[in-house]
Amino acid sequence: EVQLVESGGGLVQPGGSLRLSCAASGFTFRNSDMSWVRQAPGKGLEWVSGITTGGGWTNYADSVKGRFTISRDNAKNTLYLQMNGLKPEDTAVYYCAKSLLGTGERGQGTQVTVSS
């Protein structure tokens, strides 16, 4: 059974930073492209970033490019999202997904709130 468990969310002031983690189990993590998606209040899912199996290719939504960095540690079966320069419009529930473009299985999500 695929399990994805996100953590690291919280309340942060504008301009602050957070690092999200996604612990994966139930499948061969190193063989799976991964991604982060988010859902803001009252809005649909938005793809944020994706990373290939070895981490050699990454891509970002224009809204987060230059501020967020996706990475993975295949030895620890963990996906990360480093978020810097956070803005109020980054407020959302963040999910990791077992695919490059945000489709497929997702975790339960972690709430990120950017507010002063």
How large is the radius of gyration? 13 Å
User: Residue ranges: pLDDT <50 for 5 or more in a row?
Assistant: none
How many β strands by DSSP? 10
What oligomeric state is this?
single chain
- Give the strand order of the largest sheet, numbering strands 1, 2, ... along the chain: 2-10-9-4-5-6
Average the pLDDT over all residues and give the rounded result. 97
Structural class: mainly beta
* Amino-to-carboxy terminus distance: 40 Å
Largest sheet: 6 strands, mixed
The total count of helices amounts to 0
| Beta fraction | over 45%
Q: Quick one: overall form?
A: globular
Along the chain, the helix and strand elements come as EEEEEEEEEE
Helix content: under 10%
Structural notes for this entry:
This protein has 116 residues and is an all-beta fold. It is 0% helix and 47% strand. The protein contains no helices and ten strands. The strands form two sheets. A six-stranded mixed beta sheet has the order 2-10-9-4-5-6, with no helix packed on it. A four-stranded antiparallel beta sheet has the order 1-3-8-7, with no helix packed on it. The mean pLDDT is 97.
